Amino acid sequence: MTKVWDERSWYSVQRKLRDMGKDVDVVVFDPNLKEDSTHNTKFNCFGKKALDFFGLPKKELASRYQRKKYDIILIIADQPCMPIQFIASRAKGKFRVGCSKDITADLDLILIRSSEMGSKEYLNELIKYLQQINSK
């Protein structure tokens, strides 16, 4: 999985944002995932089995993000990833947050994690910025 992915920490962020009254979803692509389409997590974590012949998310996965309008969608990937780029570009989130300068498809905020920044520090920064944006 990507180096920015730490399930427990991201779940904490998701909970904090939900406590702020936001409808939040976290989207993760894990090419090593063995299960079909979702992972036993609180997130929409999908693997290669959820992709079609062209390497794009299958219709049922893609349509999930086109139907529901989230307040915030957190896109988790630290390198170019066509399935995540596809989801990010079609998701009906009011506010889309990413963590990679390489995944820019319709993102409203990109917060890049420096190599010396730990997961908790990075996620605390993310919450700080989202709270500042929410207060305006």
Write a brief structural summary.
The chain has helices at residues 7-19, 59-67, 82-90, 119-134; strands at 24-29, 44-46, 72-76, 95-98, 109-110. The chain is α/β, with parallel strands linked by helices and 136 residues long. Strands 2-1-3-4-5 form a five-stranded parallel β-sheet, sandwiched between helices.
Structure explained in plain terms:
By secondary structure, the chain is an alpha/beta fold. The chain has helices spanning 7-19, 59-67, 82-90, 119-134; strands spanning 24-29, 44-46, 72-76, 95-98, 109-110. The chain has a five-stranded parallel beta sheet, with helices on both faces. α1 packs parallel to α4. It is globular and about 40 Å long. The N and C termini lie far apart (35 Å). The model has no long low-confidence stretch (mean pLDDT 77).
Mean pLDDT: 77
Strand line-up in the sheet with most strands:
2-1-3-4-5
Strand content: 5-15%
Which structural class is indicated by helix and strand composition? alpha/beta
Q: Give the overall shape.
A: globular
Proportion of helical residues: 25-40%
Distance between the termini: 35 Å
Biggest sheet statistics:
5 strands, parallel
Q: Count the strands?
A: 5
Q: N-to-C SSE series?
A: HEEHEHEEH
Parts with pLDDT < 50 across at least 5 consecutive residues? none
